[in-house]
Each structure stands twice: as C-alpha cells, then as structure tokens.
Structure prediction request, 762 residues.
Amino acid sequence: MKPIVSFTTEPEFLIESEETISLYNFSLNEPPPDTGITVNINAPNLSEFDLSKAQIEGGKITLDEELEEQLQNALDGTRAAEIPGAAVAIVSPFGSWFAASGVSRLEDNTPLEPNDRFEIGSITKTFVATTVLQLVEEGKLSLQDTLTTLLPESITADIPNSEKITLKQLLQHTSGIADYVDVLFTQAAIDATVFLQEWEPEELVDLTDGVEPFFEPGESWRYSSTNFILAGLIIEAVTGNNIAAEIRTRILEPLNLENTFFAKEEEIPGGYISGYWDFDGNGSLDNISVANISWTWAAGAMVSNTQDLDTFARSLFKGDLLEPQTLEQMLDTIPTTDPVNYSSYGLGVGTIESPNRFWYIHRGQTLGYRSNMWYSPEDDLTYIELINGFSRDNLVRDILPPFREGIADENFNFTITEQSAQISLPVVNDGETEGEEIVTFTLETGEEYEVDANAQTGTFSIFDTSDEVNIIKPIVSFTSEPELLIESQETVSLLNFSLSETPPELGTTVTIKSSDLSEFNLNSIEIQGGEINLVGDDELNFTITEQNAQISLPVANDGETEGEEIATFTIEEGNRYEINPDAQTTTFSILDSLEQLILTPVADDNTTEIIDLSSFGNREITAEYTISREADFDNQVYFYAVDDINGNIDNLAPGADGYLQAALENIVHQEAFETSDDNTESGTIQMEAGSIIAPMIIVDGTLEQGKSGEVTVYLPYSGSNGSDRFDHIKMLNSNTFGFEDLPNGGDQDFNDIVIVFDKLSA
Prediction:
C-alpha cells in the first residue's frame, strides 16, 4: 500500500515587516523507506519568500530528474578538449546538484567522480583571509598594523614602502607590492624546473627584490599573490604555529571539511587527481602533477572538493566563521582594475555581477587546475567549479542558466526521509505597500504516494504590517447570472460579490476557483468595484475594494459543437473573510447555440413528468406548439410555473389546501390554447422561465373560476385528485403531452388532446 502524505502550513498570517517564518509540515502515515518519499509541491509564489534563510528538517529538496539530465548534458557538452575532467556543484535551498564529467587521469581514463579532490589555487586566499580576521577578532592583530610591525626586518627590508603597507592592504590587494608569480613564470620560460624545486615562503617574497611596486600603498588595486604569502607569514609569526595547523583548527575541523588540506604542509590521505596542461605548447596535454605546489603556499596551495567548498562558502558568507562586524569588513569591497575576473574586491573575497544576480566569489588557478567558488547571498545559491586542465572559459555560462530556470518553476520536489518533516521559510520584507496577498501551496499527487485529501493545500495571507491584520472579517456573498450562456452569442456572465460591510482600505482579496476558465474569454474581462490580481489556469485572485463588486466575463465562442457544458465557480476559504454558505458556488450551463435548447422531462415522487426550464435562467421563453384533438372536450389549456422542482409552493405540498390557488398565482402569461372539435392548430405563446413549467386543464370553467376555487383544475401530479387516481396530463415523450377528458369517463390512452412543443427558445 502506498504511504499517505499529509501537508499543512502555518501560521495563517505572515507579516512582511516582521519577516514572519512560514512552516510547511509533512507527515506520513508510516515511516518512509531508506530512500525517502519524494513529493512535488506546487508553489507559484516562492518569490514572496527569502529562500536564502530556508531551513529543512526530516528531508531535503531535490531536483527533477529531467533537470538533472539537462544539467549533465550541459556539463558534458561545455567541457572543452583541453579539460580532461570537471566537477561542478550547484547548491540552493530549492535543489542541489553535484556532478562530474570526464576523467581524473588521462593515462588510464579513470572516470572523474563528483567528490574527487583538486588543487583549488587562489581560493586558498579566502581561507587565509578568514584566519587573519579571526586573529583580528581575538585582538592578536589589527588591520592597521604595518608590515614592519608584524614581520622581521629580514623579510621587510627589501619590500618598498613596508613601513606604510597595512595588513588590510595585503588582504585587499591595494599594497602595490609586485607579484612574485610574474617573476616565477618569467624564469620558468627559460627553466621549467623552477616548478619542481621546493620553495620556502621567504624565497617567494625574495623573487620581487628589485622589482618596482605597482603603485604607492592604497592608491590603486592590483592582484598580487605576494600579498598572501606575506599574510601567511604573519599568521605563523603571531600564532607561533604552522599556517596549515591554524587553518585546520579554525576552519576545517569546525566545519568537518574532511576533503580539504594544505598541500605540502600536511599529509593528504588518498591524494588528489592529476592536473594537465600543454606546458610545452606541442598540442598535447602534459600531466604536470609532478610540480611542487610549494611555489604557491599561502597564495594557493590548498586542495579540496566541490562539497567542502560549498560548505565553506555558505558557512563563511552566512556568518558562521566571523562575527557580523568582521564579516562586514571582509565584504566591504572597492572597485578593481580587473573587471573580467572581479568587479570589486574586499579582504580575500571578490565580487562579480552577472545579468541575474550578485555574487561573492574567488577564482583559483595552479599548474593544470582551475577553480571557481561563487556564492549568491540573494538566494543562498553556491556555484563550485573545479577542472583539471587549463581554460580561460567558465563552464558556469552554460550550466547555471538551465539550473536557474529549473528551480524558478512553480514546483519543487521534497524528499521526506523521516515520518515528520518541515520546511521553514521567512516571508520577504520588500519594503513595498501591497496590502493583503494570498499565496497557496499544494501537494501534488504522485505515483509513489497517496495524498491526504483533507490536508493537501496550505494558504497564507501576507500583510505589510501587523496593523493590517486587526480588521473585522467581512462576509462575502457570491452569485452569478444568467444561468444559461450561449457561445454563438458570446453571452456575458456576471460574477457578483457583496460584502456584509465596507471593505478595508486595502480591500478584501478572495480566490475564485474554477476548472472551466478556458470556456471564457479572459481578454474581455471587465471589473467593477475591485481589481484582478491574478488569472491562473484554474483560479482568479480578486481584491474587492467596494461593498458590491462585479466581474463581467464573456463566454468564449470556440466555434466547436460540444453540446451542453457546465461551468462552476467557487470562492475558496480565506483568512481575511467569511463566506456566506448559501452563496459560495455558482454554476452556468453553456450551449453552443439557442437551437440546442431541449425539453428535459423531470419526474416527481409520484412519477408524473413535467418540463424543466431552469437552464433558461430568468428569460422570456417563446414556445412554438401544435395542438391536435380526437374528442369533444371544451377546455382551455394554460401554462403555469413553480419555483421548486418538486412542485412545492409557499411550503405547501401538491394537493394541500391552498396549493392550487398558489400555483395559479405563478401563471406568468394567460394566453390560452383554444381548441375545437377534431382540429389541429399551431401557434406560439410567451412566458417567463421559472424552475419548471407544465400545462394544466381548467375543467368546465374559466381561469378566474379556477383561481377562485369555483371549478376543478387538474394538475400533473398523481394523487392530487384524491381517490380517483386520475393522471390528467401525461408526458408522452420529451416534448409531447397527452390529455384525457376525465373524470366523466372514457379511454385512458391520452390522445384526446395532444400538445407538441416544437421549439423552445429564449
């Protein structure tokens, strides 16, 4: 048996100014399997919520399989020939994706796995900057300390302006110090073995001896890895510990980053994948993993994988590693002179702005490896890209757009791993005055589970401030007219709303559900006393601003022959209003044309048949008829109309005292069918359509005598004539009545007088 999933939400009201947290509760009638139960939630209003602050218990949000396949195809198709392998992670509150493409070793075509380790290059700088800022928080360092106060003269003596360069300028790349990497690559063009030797940090700094600085300290910005070699030396000087040990104690262990290491400074169990580069330019990729990574030390010697970098990025930028004030200093950026790589730069962290969002980022590159770590604070989205080759192109261009489009859909998947699960999501405070907004989330049906029909939908009312909530709930009555809509005439349907009192200043917003909206011309909708906020596939969201409001909605003429169709509209329950239970749902009958109007026989409890004209609404009806006679019967035949399908009038049952007089009072037009012996005649009469109509016979008298009770009037109800049991009128088929000349005797074949209704039209 399939598990039954119940879905509820709380609380009823969300206040934007207070960033109220909405709760989405899931419960199963039995424990889920080890793989969990994946359900789908229809969520068309996710933009109203702060996705960056989502918290999940008892499950996880997962991507649709089709989207995952699309992303994998994008990764495989984007990876260039010079990139043997690539691992990518995209992590967001509403779905995450970890994937790999290609190989980790060209020599034996070992497939690359999503959790494989790579050299991460200059992303190391963000780890180093975080460590420095923690030491600042502890009072062991100040960002205004200068090189000469932090490092020995043996290191600073040959650094121009060392007495003026501050720790902040090192982390911000505004020191002006020349980049030792430029010098190293110049040497490598003559002797590539420089990348094979063991380098000490001080030797890397010495490479810049005699090289002119880029600019005076603080006067501009230029990326220089020398800054972070010096920052690493400062960490070791102030703590007396190895830099790798400090990073492990302060960051790696607290975050449980089991696949992140400082290469050469600590052992890496299992190692990491090979890197490739056409180093000699002969057109083939070289495995250059033999290079000694000591040449990059605190500027880029760390090793990690996509999962660890995601954890590090979101922990850092969400405030788990630094105090708020310190993190604010880290992210206080200035414009760069290298907008291709960084739009601006803070302390060990850069930024970039794509067409769709703002990112905090850091890039990295070593021999045979390239890396990207991006984090979007707006929607708590992380993008990690690691490759074991050399390329100036970023895979993100082809991979992130389909991911963004996929999670921007109006649905998301939630895998429930415990019997009870919950998603918490604060409402966004956008600072705008919008009044009450209604948002609805629905648990969709699925093949692997059943849905609790009584706990499938959750609705929130969102207000700008708490003051808006303290409003008396008006009672909403909902009616419609007319009952019958003709497509060929594009009849206009009227949806009428009335409130028990004047609506509040921002209006009362109601949701009208209908699975039949496609039957109407929504382009010609007209509104009085309100405003349409949303027109969906099966609902209208309508803010009523006056005590009486109306929506005019023409039926659509699709040119197809479909016969009678029924369209139903219902006001959904809401938090800010009550519903008149007697005026909550309305129904229309829709016909292609007037010619489709037919007579519908309806039987009462005593099996006598009458004609139901309720589908005509409150219209005047033209009845075309033919009357034929076989016997001498000098009577007049009239129509009468009653409002109850069972024949009840003014709480009187058929045959009760006063019933006849009450029925006759409902005659709407008094034209009679005049008959004579052995005669056939045709004609038309006019009447107002009520709920039902039927012919009646005035016996041996006039209508006035019948109304006054002076003569007998036979009604089409069995038993209304007492013990005689005379059925004086009988429906012979869908449009024909037969009359007998009773009670004076005679046959009972109902052919003495026959009335045929040839056509009814409105």
Remarks:
- The two ends are 54 Å apart (CA to CA).
